[in-house]
Structure formats: C-alpha cells, structure tokens
Specification:
Radius of gyration: 13 Å
Distance between the termini: 34 Å
Largest sheet: 4 strands, mixed
Strand order of the largest sheet: 2-1-3-4
Shape: globular
Number of strands: 4
Helix content: 40-55%
Number of helices: 4
C-alpha cells in the first residue's frame, strides 16, 4: 500500500497517466497477457506508470476497486479513472496504451 501511495503520488506530480493491472498468480488469462503488459510497460515507461496489483496479496485494497474478474486494467490520471478494461484482450490493451501514449505526446507539445 505504501508503494501504491508513493508511486501514484509521484505520477500525479509528474503528470503521468497510470495503468494498473489487477491480476492473480493463479489466473491463466493474467499469465497469458503478462508478457504483453511488460512489453508495453518497457516501451512506454517514460510517459506512463505501469503498476500490477495481486488481488490475493492485496485483497482488501482490490475490493475497494470493485474487481469482479482478473485481469482488470484501470487507466488513471490525477487519481481519477479514465478507462477500464476487463479481460485479457491483448489487442484492446495495446490500442488503449498506444492511445494514451499519443495523447501524452500531444499534451506535452
């Protein structure tokens, strides 16, 4: 929880968008999309903060986000939810991340 507060506070201060992946180690779709999520994080880490929350390790915290299925991805900016994706839809996740990155680039010009 402390890491969450520190990371999101820093992202808000820096004007970064935050993408949060709520997943579980036992979840097959979570494992299937994990590599794609890491690739996106590596590619766009300069403008987007990528976080992963294990719903079992942080069950109480995850409950406050109303997680009904894993994986669930939230897009946040300034602490507000901008978007949400439920499920391991790689193409849709890529589309959303690329859209965020392009939006961030236009905003910083």
């Amino acid at each position: 929880m402390e890491k969450w507060e520190t990371e999101t506070s820093e992202a808000n201060k820096d004007g970064k968008t935050v993408v949060v992946n709520f997943s579980a180690s036992w979840c097959i779709p979570c494992r299937q999309i994990a590599a794609a999520y890491r690739e996106l994080a590596d590619k766009y880490c300069s403008s987007i903060l990528f976080l992963t929350v294990d719903v079992d390790a942080l069950a109480e915290f995850s409950t406050t986000w109303d997680i009904k299925a894993t994986p669930t991805f939230f897009v946040l900016r300034d602490g507000r939810q901008l978007d949400k994706l439920v499920g391991a839809n790689k193409a849709e996740l890529q589309r959303k991340i690329i859209g965020i990155a392009e939006s961030n680039t236009r905003t910083s010009l």
